[in-house]
Design a protein that fits this description.
Helix content of chain B: under 10%
Radius of gyration of chain B: 13 Å
Oligomer: heterodimer
Radius of gyration of chain A: 14 Å
Distance between the termini of chain A: 37 Å
Shape of chain A: globular
Low-confidence stretches of chain A: none
Order of helices and strands of chain A: EEEEEEEEEEE
Number of strands of chain B: 11
Structural class of chain B: mainly beta
Number of strands of chain A: 11
Helix content of chain A: under 10%
Distance between the termini of chain B: 29 Å
Largest interface: A-B, 22 and 21 residues
Mean pLDDT of chain A: 90
Chain lengths: 113, 114
């Protein structure tokens, strides 16, 4: 079963605007990861945020994590046409020797020129 | 997708035939994974490997087998392809399973079973 749920499922904005995508999950996690997938390509790792971190930046990307609400958000500032892609969150849970990486179904982001 | 390649990129096969997909990495990563991606399901883990000859099942392993005879190669075999196995298959690698590692993905293999 998929733990991560991205919201919204699809988002269309004008170039230059900011895009915010959310991910909710159900169980405790060790870290949460965001990936981008361009059409017809594999997924590309963007950012990993650990459970004891609240915010992380990478270029125009900002990820926040709220473990009390079991949610994360990915903000892309000053969006560009090249940001058009699907974005996935994946939660990592490590319990004893068991390691679980659970994927959400993704948010499809379209940046209109 | 530097460091990880999948072959073939596209394949059409008939129901009941065996199919083998190959994943090759040059990163010397210990962990390798096979996923399938279908609309509405996101990524689902088929099998994974944590070392040479060490493999385990994922959540959708029925109808699939894997082998890893060398660190760099991870093969996924559909013993007798069915139409439900039409999908896009992704291989991924990671250095480890501790919390600081992300995955690197291949470009995918689009498999159509007719």
């Amino acid at each position: 079963s998929q733990q991560g749920e991205e919201d919204p499922q699809a988002l269309s904005i004008q170039e230059g605007e900011n895009a915010t995508m959310n991910c909710s999950y159900k169980t405790s996690i060790n870290n949460l990861q965001w990936y981008r997938q361009n059409s017809g390509r594999g997924l590309v790792h963007l950012i990993l945020i650990r459970s004891n971190e609240r915010e992380k930046h990478s270029g125009r990307l900002r990820v926040t994590l709220d473990t009390s609400k079991k949610s994360s958000s990915l903000l892309i500032t000053a969006s560009r046409a090249a940001d058009t892609a699907s974005y996935f969150c994946a939660t990592v849970r490590i319990m004893d020797s068991n390691y679980q990486l659970i994927w959400g179904a993704g948010t499809k982001l379209i940046i209109k020129p | 997708d530097a460091g990880i390649t999948q072959s073939p990129r596209h394949k059409v096969t008939e129901t009941g035939t065996p199919v083998t997909l190959r994943c090759h990495q040059t990163e010397n990563h210990r962990y390798m994974y096979w996923y399938r991606q279908d609309p509405g399901h996101g990524l689902r883990l088929i099998h994974y490997s944590y070392g040479v000859k060490d493999t385990d099942k994922g959540e959708v392993s029925d109808g699939y087998s894997v082998s890893r005879s060398k660190t760099e190669d991870f093969l996924l075999t559909l013993e007798s392809a069915t139409s439900s196995q039409t999908s896009v298959y992704f291989c991924a690698i990671s250095e480890g399973v501790r919390e600081n590692y992300g995955y690197t993905f291949g470009s995918g293999t689009r498999l159509t079973v007719v």
